[in-house]
Each structure stands twice: as structure tokens, then as C-alpha cells.
Design brief:
Elements: H1 3-7, H2 62-65, E1 79-84, H3 90-99, E2 111-121, E3 129-139, E4 147-153, H4 174-188, E5 192-196, H5 217-234, E6 239-248, H6 250-265, E7 270-277, H7 286-289, H8 304-322, H9 336-345, H10 354-357, H11 369-380, H12 391-404, E8 418-423, H13 431-444, E9 448-453, H14 460-477
Parallel strand pairs: 4-5, 4-6, 6-7, 7-8, 8-9
Antiparallel strand pairs: 1-2, 2-3, 3-5
Length: 510
């Protein structure tokens, strides 16, 4: 095993994260198929405030959006709660984007901002009824009389309640800026945009409301598609039947996961485009592969990032798929309580994850030795699953999960135009990893095109290419002219020696 190969796994979806305190609770009842009585404020109630574009009652408080509803209706995408947030002027959004190095057309619209909660379905074995919170941006100067539905998928933020996308610390941390880089140019270009937190953030820890599964395609895809349904209910006079999904980093994974399952989960949605920035469309077995040589992943410095993502991935999948209280099952017995506390409280913090760093010297100290023995060889492609139990079942279970979290694009999904925007200076998803994502799209026969900018990295590529993405969306949804060349193609993705980058197949790119 070459250290250089394993070192190249030291990446993660370093996208938006914002952390502050939050609270929520309550009990979620089973889906009884009844009427839409889920909101504590009925949609029939006269709203305390109603903007010029939203077409449902918005009488809830902002705090209520974080709280679990008492019941859930049958209709996917049904609006459970709605609250008006502070509106944004075009000048305010321009100032934010300028501080992030935005390069694009001048913004033409401000935003009416709402926070909403809507009904969705979870990616657990029962596909239980669930709910997601979201930020809704409606333009005060629409680009057209009828706008496409745009769902913007956020990157990694942490999985705790405090990590919802509307959370913003006083210092305006850089990962929150990634969300604004993606969303503000869209609404500032006159589009209606809904940005889901994903199910699991609102009502965090409530009965029947497991934590959001990190990169769990079946879980995040449902929240995303139901977000499109929700926006159509929120502003039916403003939006058309055309749906666009965008996503940055982990959000790119979310967007492509939603596209992959749309034909079976939301066949009525007319998805016409997907725009991804630095997508995490890499083999999810990567998070188990680091266990083949955990000493290369100390709980310090830059390698805290893959350790943190591996913890999020395994803990949240266990809670979602194995049931409440099972999140710690794959971790070392003496570390389970601390792991739970870390997941429940910690948002994206990079090298400052001090509480995680206290749990050992490297990745191997975090996980149950039996789990490492069962999964490491197979996840990395260095061997097979054990032939006897308990290792055999454990390995097969997790390999099934890893593989299902990068579903193939089939049927209609193969025909949907996809743009992949990538910064050649990206070290978060480096060239030999993004090429794995592109190879997968190519092998699926996807209708994709790559736009490479040689001067940008994982975050700044969004600032530089967001305006182009907005015009590209307009060409597909509003009859506007094609914006033309978006930059260099994938032949501009090169390694440190200037050679054409190739996919690093540790782990295998399946």
C-alpha cells in the first residue's frame, strides 16, 4: 500500500457550514394519510404577514420552523410551516458576493426571504414520513413571468441541529459563504430558489426523526425532490413545471442523487437541468477505506477532515438505517458517548475540531476493531469480505450502503443536461478524485459537460461560475440565448506534473 495513494484520500466535502445554538423537539406521528393538519398554524389561518409572491399563510415564528410538527399529512412536499425572514436587497447581496470574489453580471433582483418546513420521506428501510426545513428566496424582480423551480443543495455543514443552513456565526465563517456563493447569484438573477436543510435538522432528535444521513442518497434525494414539490406549492403563480437542481460539493452529491431517483420517486417533476460545483460524486466507500491504514489519518491537522466525514457518514447511516441509538455501533465501545456528543453538537470546523482530536491519535482509535477488521480490506479494494460471521454480515451490509450512495443515472436521468463546474486549484476534491466523478458520469452515459476554471479552488469556482450557471439555466428554461463557452473542458484537469489527471482507484471507482 503506497502512502501517496492513501494520502490522496485526505479530502472531504468542504462546503458551507455555520454553527450556533438551536433547539427543537416534539413527537412526529406516523403518516396516517389524513388531511394537512400538520402545522401548528393551519394554512387556512389568516397570515400575520404575506409577501407579494408566496401564496400560503406565513404566520409561524422563525423558531417554530425548527420544531417538529405534531402530525404529518400524506402529501409529499406539503407545507407544514412558513415564516417570513428578513428580506435582502440586491445591494446587500451584491456586497456579500463582492466580499467572496464574485465575478459575474450585476444582480437585478433582491429577495423576499422565508423559512419553511415541508413534508418529505426518509431514506430509512420503511421510508417513513418526515419533514425538512428550508430557506426560500423569492425574487422581488423576477427574471420572467414564469420561473423554473430551483432547488439549491448545500455542502457539508455538520449534521447537528445547530448546523442548519440559515445559521450564521458572527464572524461569517468561510463555509457559510459557500452557500451564499451558490444561492445569492441565482435569486439575484431573478430566480425563485428553495434551499433545503434536508430532513433531520429541524426537530433534531425528535421521536421518529433520525439525523440526516451524510451523503445517504436515498435520504437526501427525497428531501431535495420534495423541496421542488414544496416550492411549487409555495408560489404556484410564479413558477413553471420546469425543475433545476444545483449543488456544491456534498450538495453536488445531493443533486445527482436526486436526479438518479427522480423517475421512481417524483416522476411528475420535469427536471430539465442539474448544475454542480465541485461535486462529491466519488465512491462513498472512501470513508471506510481510510481504515486500511489509519495511522496515515491522525486526528490532527488536515487529516481531521476525512476523519470527521467518516464519523458523520458512519454514525448517521447507523442511526438512519439501523434505528435510534445505533449510531455508535461501529465505533470503539469507550468512544461511543463522545462520538454521539460530537455529532450532536459540532458543525464544520476543519482543523479546529478539538473534541474529536481528543478521542485518540488516529482514525483507528475511533472505530470498533471488529468493524475495522470486517470492512477495511473490502472497502479499499484490497481484499474481500470475511467468509464467516459476524464480519461477513457486517462487511456486506456496509458495502451495500457505500455502493447505494452513488446510484447510477438511468432512464430519463441520463438525458438531463448536467454542468460540472470545477476549479483546477481544488485541493478538497483534487483532480484525481473529481476525475472519478466524471468517469462515473461517462460510464452511465450521462448528458454532462465539464467547465474548468484554471484560477479557482473548491469554493471560489462558485463565485466565478455562478453567473454563467444562471444564464445557462435561463437558456434551458426561459428561452434565453445559450451563454456559449463556459471555460476549458475536462482535458484541463491535470495532475501536479501537468499530465492529464486520472481517477485514483483506491478505492475502486464503483
Amino acid at each position: 500500500m503506497h502512502r501517496a495513494h492513501l494520502a490522496l484520500l485526505a479530502f472531504a466535502s468542504a462546503s458551507l457550514a455555520a454553527c450556533s445554538s438551536s433547539s427543537g423537539g416534539g413527537t412526529v406521528s406516523a403518516d396516517d394519510g389524513g388531511a394537512d393538519t400538520a402545522s401548528e398554524t393551519s394554512p387556512d389561518t389568516t397570515p400575520a404577514w404575506k409577501g407579494p409572491d408566496v401564496e400560503v399563510a406565513c404566520a409561524d415564528t422563525l423558531a417554530a420552523i425548527d420544531q417538529a410538527p405534531t402530525t404529518l399529512p400524506a402529501t409529499k412536499g406539503a407545507i407544514l410551516k412558513c415564516a417570513h425572514d428578513a428580506d435582502l436587497s440586491a445591494a446587500t447581496m451584491t456586497a456579500h458576493l463582492a466580499s467572496y470574489g464574485y465575478v459575474g453580471k450585476a444582480l437585478t433582483s433582491g429577495a423576499h426571504v422565508y423559512r419553511v418546513q415541508y413534508r418529505t420521506e426518509r431514506g430509512d428501510p420503511a421510508h417513513s414520513a418526515g419533514f425538512s426545513s428550508a430557506i426560500l428566496f423569492l425574487p422581488d424582480t423576477p427574471r420572467a413571468a414564469k420561473l423554473p423551480v430551483i432547488v439549491a443543495s448545500h455542502g457539508s455543514r455538520g449534521q447537528a441541529a445547530a448546523c442548519g443552513i440559515y445559521r450564521r456565526p458572527a464572524d461569517q465563517d468561510t463555509v457559510y459563504s459557500d452557500f451564499e456563493r451558490q444561492a445569492l447569484p441565482l435569486v439575484g438573477s431573478g430566480y425563485a430558489v428553495l434551499a433545503p436543510d434536508l430532513a433531520g435538522y429541524a426537530g433534531y432528535g425528535a421521536t421518529g426523526n433520525p439525523v440526516s444521513g451524510y451523503a445517504a442518497s436515498d435520504d437526501v434525494g427525497r428531501s431535495t425532490l420534495d423541496g421542488a414539490r414544496a416550492l411549487k406549492l409555495l408560489a404556484p403563480s410564479l413558477v413553471s413545471d420546469k425543475v433545476v437542481i444545483t449543488g456544491h460539493s456534498q450538495g453536488g452529491h445531493t443533486a445527482l442523487s436526486a436526479l438518479a431517483m427522480a423517475e421512481t420517486y417524483a416522476a411528475e417533476l420535469n427536471i430539465v437541468a442539474v448544475a454542480t460545483f465541485s461535486p462529491l460524486w466519488i465512491p462513498q466507500r472512501s470513508w471506510g477505506t481510510i481504515l486500511i491504514a489509519p495511522g496515515l489519518y491522525p486526528l490532527s491537522g488536515d487529516t481531521l477532515t476525512p476523519n470527521a466525514v467518516s464519523v458523520w457518514y458512519h454514525y448517521t447511516h447507523s442511526e438512519l438505517l439501523d434505528g435510534p441509538g445505533h449510531g455508535g455501533d461501529v465505533f470503539a465501545a469507550g468512544k461511543r458517548a463522545a462520538i454521539k456528543a460530537w455529532v450532536d453538537s459540532q458543525c464544520w470546523a476543519g482543523s479546529s475540531w478539538t473534541e474529536l482530536a481528543k478521542l485518540g491519535s488516529n482514525a483507528g482509535d475511533l472505530f470498533d476493531p471488529a468493524f475495522i477488521a470486517a470492512i477495511a480490506d473490502k472497502a479499499s479494494g484490497n481484499g474481500d469480505c470475511p467468509t464467516t460471521d459476524p464480519g461477513k454480515t457486517l462487511c456486506n451490509t456496509w458495502m451495500t450502503r457505500y455502493l447505494s450512495d452513488r446510484p447510477h443515472l438511468t432512464g430519463k436521468a441520463k438525458t438531463v443536461p448536467i454542468r460540472v463546474f470545477y476549479g483546477a486549484l481544488d485541493t478538497t476534491i483534487p483532480p484525481d478524485r473529481v476525475t472519478c466523478a466524471l468517469d462515473r458520469l461517462k460510464s452511465d452515459g450521462a448528458n454532462y459537460k465539464v467547465c474548468v476554471d484554471g484560477t479557482t479552488n473548491h469554493s471560489t469556482v462558485v463565485s466565478v461560475k455562478a453567473s454563467f450557471a444562471a444564464d445557462w439555466i435561463a437558456s434551458l428554461t426561459l428561452g434565453e440565448p445559450d451563454p456559449g463557452s463556459c471555460g476549458k473542458d475536462e482535458t484541463a484537469i491535470v495532475d501536479s506534473l501537468g499530465n492529464l489527471a486520472v481517477c485514483n482507484t483506491l478505492p475502486p471507482n464503483d
